[in-house]
Amino acid sequence: MKRAGDDRRPPEPGDAAAQQTAPEAMPAVDSRLIVREEGFRGYVGEFRRKLRSGELGSLPVVIAVIIIWTVFGSLDSAFLSAQNLSDLSQQIVGTGMIAVGIVFVLLLGEIDLSVGSVSGLCAAIFAVLNVINGMNEWLALLVALAGGAAVGLIHGFFFAKVGVPAFVVTLAGNLAWNGLMLQVLGTSGTVNIPSDSIVAELYSTIFESPAAAYVTAAVGVGLFLLASLLDARRRQAARVPSRPLAEIVLRTVVIAAIAFAAAYILNQYQGLPLALLIFLVLLVVIDFVLRRTRYGRQIFAVGGNIEGARRAGISVPFVRMSVFTIAGTMAAVGGLFLAGQIQSASQTSGGGNLLMNVIAAAVIGGTSLFGGRGSVWSALLGALVIGSIQSGMNIMGVSNAVQFMITGSVLLAAVVVDSLSRRSQKAAGRA
Amino acid sequence: MTQAPVLSLRGVSKRFGAVQALSDFDLEVRAGEVVALVGDNGAGKSTAVKAIAGVNPPDGGVIEWQGRPVTIHRPHDAQSLGIATVYQDLALCDNLDVVGNLFLGRELRRFGVLDEVRMEQRSRELLDTLSIRIPSVRIPVASLSGGQRQTVAIARSLIGDPRIVILDEPTAALGVEQTAEVLDLVERLRERGLGTILISHNMVDVMAVADRIAVLRLGRNNGLFEKRSTTTEEIISAITGASDSAVTRRQARKREEREARGEGSP
Question: Which CDD domains match (chain B) (predicted)?
Fold first, then answer.
């Protein structure tokens, strides 16, 4: 273990002695810090330490994706074709959007069982207003989103203000909003959405120029590098530990490899789908909100210790109601993408195994069911796992019956990993 | 000690249903002194603390802050006056790191975004001045020991620059070494010129750091002792009411009767 002082400025001969003699403001911090060794070895060391103490993060899900892709790729080469992977990148958006809302709710340690019905309801609201009543499509879109938000707010109210367990409120909502959707759809049962409708276009538009995908990848990687460098420089100026340059470069290289590989595959087929771009931008924004704003910190605090959050002056009812409102809104967003995908809103919208899939996606992605731990990126990774399994099994011609059983098993496996990692976190004193 | 008290309670009372939890309670706390509040279970220590902290506002009596009467209805009122309370359950968020916990509810921001760098810097400075030893300010609080969690909770109460800090049983669940760390920290609070109210069951801890010891018994003041001029036995007898036994009451009554007959003291 090195002294933390070495982290702040380059080690010089006699530096330690100079620090001891000079009565500086903070020489004593050094000895008590767990300081990572610089360079690659330190990185591996810390990785091992985290692994032992059960901080698995997104590692299991990344391994899962690799296994799933290897297995299906070896069973049928069509799975890893550019066309299938491009389709997959579009298909996961609807599920992933709803899963983003579930991640918020899971961060509080709660659950929302209504998001499937809410997504169907909002798709129906849009379809009926726009297609049947001829309302302006943007206005209809806004009304559908506002509907999702209002539904979430109602759940949040009964949970946060009345004190009904969230699980029961949203279970009741699951049935009630499904009923309202059938009511909205009326006798027709199915409303077809024309392919030039805004909802259909949001889903199906693809930027065909190869430049689009590459520029997006380059901008994303560039912003990441810039943010990392600026942060490191500010930390150095403030004399607090910062990421070493080697690590920043390593992280950037990994991200760049993934981003440009994805761009290359998308360009092999048709190009960058708009839906995927919207999803990724939204994830970056929401990730920022969760990790870098006071509101995000409040969500984590309520998920970690309700009483602690309350004593720190955080309005727990506000956080709870707003989180359920976000879950409802994201359910609406996802529902609209799913409606755009099949170009209709029908009585089966938001039904079937959608609810299970989105909850599975959030949990598989690495967001803990126990609250306070997780990241919005788990919505993407989890949706990718679920989507890959379904896509692979469809290619292989596996029946629905078997698909359900396998998806259920994967969810169980994810929850087991979550529970086990929580147990070893406890053993390592981290839970 | 001629200095005016920062916080003084006069005749404070609180009733919960049929229980008079606190009656006619007086307490004064000056800057740079540690006042221990001791008493048996149910003696009213927690009620007194909650009255000061604004959790359960008192029914009657006066609370004065720097000489002027104030009303404390909510925890927020107490905090904005400069009264910080560290409860026994600490109320730390295990999933957040030390910096996140220290600044929870008072996050520093820069362009509307959390200023992690400055918060980390200030956390280190604060922990340094208090000589608090923790492995890293960036690990989750869950991985700290009980004593370290207690010191983090106390450090957190200092973020808002309070004048009075209330510590509710800070050493109750700690081992010997960790208790010593917390007691060192209490002395450092005194050196910083803060008034500290220390609630404790442990007479050894109380005698080690307190300047004055206020005893509560059955919701009433039952003696105020200067540490220098008292003994543990004296305080314990005030806590248990040993000085108020059947024998002492009989003696007192006989004395009163004699005085009433005009015989004077024997």
Answer: ABC_Carb_Monos_I
Does B167 lie in the same domain as B153?
A: no
| Whether A34 and B121 lie within 8 Å, measured CB to CB | no
**Which residues of chain B have a CB within 8 Å of the CB of A57?**
none
Same-domain check for residues B184 and B209: yes
Of A33, A303, A428, which is closest to B143 when you measure between CB atoms?
A: A428
Residue A302 sits at the vertex; the CA angle it makes with A298 and A307, to the nearest 5 degrees, is 120
Q: For residue range B128-171, what is the model confidence (pLDDT) as tens digits?
A: 888 888 888 888 888 888 888 888 998 998 888 899 999 998 88
Q: For residue A372, list chain B residues with Cβ-Cβ distance below 8 A.
A: 93-95
Rounded to two decimals, the ipTM of the complex is 0.81
Kindly state whether residues B213 and B233 are assigned to the same domain.
Answer: yes
- Model's pTM, two decimal places? 0.85
A101 touches chain B (CB under 8 A): no
Q: How far apart are CA B13 and CA B11, in angstroms?
A: 6
- Minimal CA–CA distance to A357: which of A121, A173, A99? A99
The answer on B179 and B145 residing in a single domain is no
Instruction: Give tens-digit pLDDT for A279-321.
Output: 999 999 999 999 999 999 999 999 999 988 988 889 999 999 9
Residue A23 at interface with chain B, using a CB cutoff of 8 Å: no
